[in-house]
Design brief:
This protein is an alpha+beta fold. Helix content is 18%, strand content 35%. It has 4 helices and 13 strands.
Length: 230
């Protein structure tokens, strides 16, 4: 049996992952539960881990998985995708299932130029390829884009990073997508449905959301992971 606060926190984390693909920060969890300090969140997370409702993966910057919901069912959250749980960052770390994550295979995926994380710019089709550890990719067809700009910096996506994109023409509200605007320009943003309009939200307070009609935006993929070279 979970306490009320443990139940509330687990549901809050699970719902946040389903809707945005990003784990809530410690501050968000503290405010959602009405607690006075983040230490209370640490204790709740430890208690949930002890009861096998969540799991932290070793050597993954305190990465967290939701294993099951309070009712006893398995969470609908995609467990092949692990969200880095850290109050200072929301970078999404993606691994495949444990069996495939253990291998050292490297795949080459197409590298299609640069994509804006700021004002939209052209996403160039190119013949280049990017070598990516197989453990960073889930099922489906993928390609990579080099990020240009800083409008997604608060989501941990920096200028010069490589966004790993799963090809798809559909995405859920709150997911980070490659949006093709007017069949000319592409940008990396949070997807929001705003009535009959499409809103592309940045993750940087210095930028304004971009609003378009449904026919003006086409989804070309959703973010599956991030590769950063040092």
């Amino acid at each position: 049996m979970l306490t009320q606060k443990q139940h509330e926190l687990l549901c809050f984390i699970d719902e946040k992952l389903k809707h945005s693909g990003v784990s809530p920060s410690f501050e968000e969890m503290k405010e959602a539960l009405g607690l006075k300090s983040k230490s209370g969140i640490h204790r709740l997370i430890s208690a949930l881990e002890e009861r096998d409702f969540i799991r932290r993966l070793p050597n993954r910057a305190r990465a967290l998985e939701v294993l099951k919901l309070p009712e006893g069912g398995v969470s609908e959250t995609d467990h092949s995708n692990v969200i880095a749980l850290h109050p200072e960052t929301t970078v999404r770390e993606v691994i495949s299932n444990p069996a495939s994550a253990a291998n050292n295979d490297v795949l080459e995926i197409p590298l299609h130029g640069r994509i804006a994380a700021g004002a939209p710019i052209e996403a160039l089709e190119g013949q280049s390829a990017l070598s990516v550890p197989a453990a960073l990719l889930g099922p489906g067809e993928h390609y990579a884009l080099e990020v240009s700009g800083d409008s997604m910096i608060d989501a941990g996506i920096l200028d010069g990073d490589y966004a790993l994109i799963q090809k798809t023409e559909v995405a859920r509200d709150g997911e980070i997508v490659v949006a093709l605007i007017h069949e000319e320009e592409a940008t990396l943003k949070y997807l929001r449905k705003d009535g009959r309009s499409i809103r592309l939200d940045p993750a940087n307070a210095a930028y304004e959301p971009q609003i378009y009609g449904e026919g003006e935006v086409r989804i070309q993929g959703k973010m599956a992971g991030l590769l950063r070279r040092y």
